[in-house]
Amino acid sequence: MSLKEDLIKIVGDSGVSDSQDDIAPLIKGQSLEPTQMPGVKVSVKSSDEVGKIIQLANDQKTPVTLSSSGDHSRGITPCEDGILLDLSNMKNIEEPDNRNRKVKVEAGVTWAEVGAVLKKDNLMINNPFLPRANSSVLTSILERDPMLNAQFEFGERIMSLEMFWPTGELFRTGSASSIKYPDSLASGCYPYGPGPLDPMRLLECAQGTMGVCTWTNIKTELLPEIDKAFLIPFDKLEDLVNALYAIQLKKLGKECVVLNSQNLATVLENPGIKSSMPPWSILIVLPGGRLFPEEKIAYEEEALNEVRASQFSSSKLLEEIPGAGSTDILPSLLRNPWPAEKTYWKDQPKGACQDLFFIAKLEKTPAFVDAVMKAADSNGYNPDDIGVYIQPIDFASGTHVEFNIFYDEENADEKAAAEKVYTAAIEETLKLKAHYTRPYGKVMSKMIYDNASGYAGMLKKIKSIFDPNSVMKPGALCF
Amino acid sequence: MISKEIYKELEEIVGPDNISQDRDVCQAYVMGGDRAWHNTDAKALSTIPEIVLLPGSTEEVQKIVKVACKHKITYTPSSTFWFPTASPSNEDALLLDLKRMKHFEIDAKNMNATVGPGINFGQLQAEAMNNGLYTMVPGGGSQVGVIANTLIWGYSPLTYRTGLANRRIMGAEWILPDGEIVQIGSLASGEDGFWGEGIGPDLRGILRGSIGWHGSMGIVTKMTVKLFPFHEEKLVPVGTTPWTFFLFPEERMKWYNFTCPDKKTMVDFMYDIGHCEIGAANTRVPISWRYMARARDKEKFHEIWMEDREQKRKEVAETAILRVMLIGYTSRKQLQYEEKVLMQIAENHGCEHRRTRQVDGSWMQSCDAVTMWWLTGANMSVTGQLDSLDCSVKMGEKFADLKEKYTPPLMDDHHDPGWFQLNDFGHNGYLEFMNYAEPYETEENVEKILDYYAIAGPKIVIDAGALSFFNQAISPASLDGPNYGPNFHLYAKKVKDAFDPEGLANPPGILDRIDTVIDRIPVLKAKKDW
User: Fold this and answer.
1) Residues of B in contact with A462 (CB under 8 A)
2) 3-state secondary structure string, B154-168?
3) Quick one: A39 and A130 in the same domain?
């Protein structure tokens, strides 16, 4: 019996296709990396089907690549002739557990879908920066897309999850790990273990190489009814860095984002105002509390003014975005995915975008920006056109530093220049000890793991323990 | 018996002043037997080490582990010697006392500290607070080692804001059981240890889960831990040892005690505090703690705690006291705002605000931990329940019922439902169900206590479908394993076997420890029905 026939036995005729027309939309991504065509796509609707397919893949030693949504903005490189396991039809969102502030979502649930459900109860999941509306919440969080809320207390959004090991065995983590779950006293509010291993950590940023996650319990938070947002402009990134440390030390605001003028103009969909934008901006939202919301905003605003006076007096707390109106638009902009009906913001400048991002200490971000801009300049790419997004994490004890290299996919010269900038930027930032926690694509992962051979060696050993047949996306990462 | 040649080999690594085979010296590293009865495995397994070593550096630890592997000698690491797994459980073992490894660096700007195994929480907290930062200090006390505790447990009421221990582990230098070193987190990229996430899959997932390996997956010789914004106003130490406290700067931090109409209302109150995103700690006060605070010594405690038992039982059943800490991290006005919110919630629930002293001897530095832990001479929490607050409360009730069947020999706590609190800004809860017993009991009573800890307790947790953070430290993996994950123990065993095929790192290892205990004690073995 062929692989396709075996898969049809599991999910039925309609769930299996080896037509390139059916598969192509699922693997089309935004990446400079060339993609490969899997042999067959199988769409699942239940955990049970996932387990059977992974077991089948082990029996037949067939590689499996995961897909949870239509968004592959970092590229997806399926294994040639393998199975593309499409989880995007796993759409269940359980009734939110508002007492314990969590919601259980399956792998195919998107930011737009879960946001619509939670808003009814004035709740939200802390989201990353303007994700695509059709991107999977589960994948985004498992892949460690940083949230905009810089306060530590709101982090570690996954509270427990269900997974299949690469050998096809079902497993649940944390306090959902009882075999009685969900008919148990524990409701899956605790993420780690059980026992001395933490499978959740192994799944994080594994790009589907360490197993399949089918659902998670995710933290929900209060969606404030009122907020006050500011734009704080800076001419020099060094000055912004000092200001950001001071703001975060005082635990001010929730959403807190740094953009350069290129990215600020882009997300405001008004490229014409780029020249009137400050070179660097902090966007910060002071949220109202559940009780006495105005008074919470008042004490935070007073403290923010005091920090400004003592630490960055030459910048102002602006309530108007130069050329773009009131900062009142920011809370809604920052707490929602990019509208599905609009061209995605990263596609607006030139049609395509290659992202480059890593974790660094905030104080080193000026050096990283300098290095990438020089790499752009020396490879025929205008540094002013590169978007920069800096996300403080956990009170700015670390930062996500992201460069957006916009290019026209149809313009060979431009695409080639973007490729050169991308590779050169990785090289230059590695010299400055950038911590690439999420190496996407074979080019990057080779460069990163070559630079961290000890870590790569242990990962290979772990991979061989849990995936002895090497079925989960072989060739990705360092194994 | 370890040969003289091997002794010489080890002596060359650490120098003659840092190695000993003297029986009296080695005896000091035994936890269990006549020295102290701490819990089941200490009693059944603890043995005297053959050689004690005090390495002073990562390189020395690595060399010792490699010598141990070469000669197939077992080894047990210990830093502050708090838990029974910090002493050997088999003959001819090396004991690595890591207390000389006092590496300490603080990076206040990036809110972290890098510590060696010899650094304890007292030292860490003092330096953190000198830099306008803080962290939690565990209930075990401020003398507890930072690395060991963060790898294994890491809970306190302050984890309401400082998070679960897994999130405080950043970069780490880890000597694997075969003596190879792996750098995890940002150390792997050549940076310092400011960040914990891996390159791709996160190897912290191998380093610890809901519990740690207790030395059976190698030795962490350096760890960067996260610190948190505090405030700039000083906490003034007052009093004379052992009755010392921090005096709170009341405009920046305060305790609030509330008497609630009943336990259900108190729990609803606690949830609301989390929902309103305020507070720094949010914990139930077990009634026995109030008597401990009044008693000042063990004899007086027993006198006042055991008098009029019917009245005490009524008091325990009907008293619901909530203790909340507020901190004005941002400003004095933050404290004023949060106090207003807190009082509004209290009013909504009909809870009465009680006067309390604005001092702390328990959590900012835990200087009274010994008083708490050694009330009767021996104590072991039978479970640390991790899930929602509601789950913690229900498990506490189940344990209170179970404990009655084992009282005496356990100390009567008048059906107290345990100590529960909110963690993780109210996203999850925590129950610690404490038990007190005298160390020198009859054999029959000791066996009864062992049954409670190692079999009856774990069984009711499994039956309820709850998760104990003590699993494998007090319950057998052969019982727990099939019920959680399922089969988490088999996956962990695969990892252990791959990295330590000879089983030299602190045997029998956390996965086999309690099963070994049960097999060695006939009365427990007879009860093994799974």
Assistant:
1) 201, 203, 206, 495
2) CCCCCHHHHCCHHHC
3) no
Residue A353 and residue A325 share a domain: no
**Cα–Cα distance list, A197 to A191, B151, B458 (Å):** 12, 12, 19
Min Cα distance B54 → chain A (Å) is: 27
Contacts of A154 in chain B (CB under 8 A): 425
Q: Are A78 and A120 in contact (CB under 8 A)?
A: no
User: Which residue is associated with the tokens 């898969």?
Assistant: A7
Angstroms from A185 CA to nearest CA on chain B? 6
> pLDDT tens digit string along A241-256?
999 999 999 999 999 9
What is the side-by-side order of every strand in the sheet holding B243-247? B236-240, B243-247, B359-360
Number of domains in chain A: 4
The tens digit of pLDDT for each residue in B332-390 reads 999 999 999 999 999 999 999 999 999 998 889 876 666 666 666 666 667 778 999 99
Q: Is residue A461 part of a domain?
A: no
Last residue of a domain, one of A54, A86, A118: A86
Q: Is B478 on the interface with A (CB under 8 A)?
A: no
- Please, what are the domains in chain B? 4-97 (3.30.43.10), 104-229 (3.30.465.10), 239-464 (3.40.462.10)
Please list the alpha-helical segments (H only) found in B153-209. Answer: 159-162, 204-207
State which residues form the domain around A317: 227-334
Same domain, A113 and A59: no
Single out the residue in A283, A310, A334 at which a domain terminates.
A334
Q: Is A94 part of any domain?
A: no
| Domain presence at residue A457 | no
DSSP-derived secondary structure letter, A255 = B
Q: Which residues of B53-92 are buried (b: 16+ CB within 10 A; e: fewer)?
A: bbbbebebbbbbbebbbeeebbbbbbbbbbbbbbbbbbee
Q: Chain A partners of B188 at a C-beta cutoff of 8 Å?
A: 435, 452, 454-455
Nearest chain A Cα to B276, which residue?
A290
ipTM score here?
A: 0.96
Q: Which residue is closest to A142 within chain B, CA to CA?
A: B201
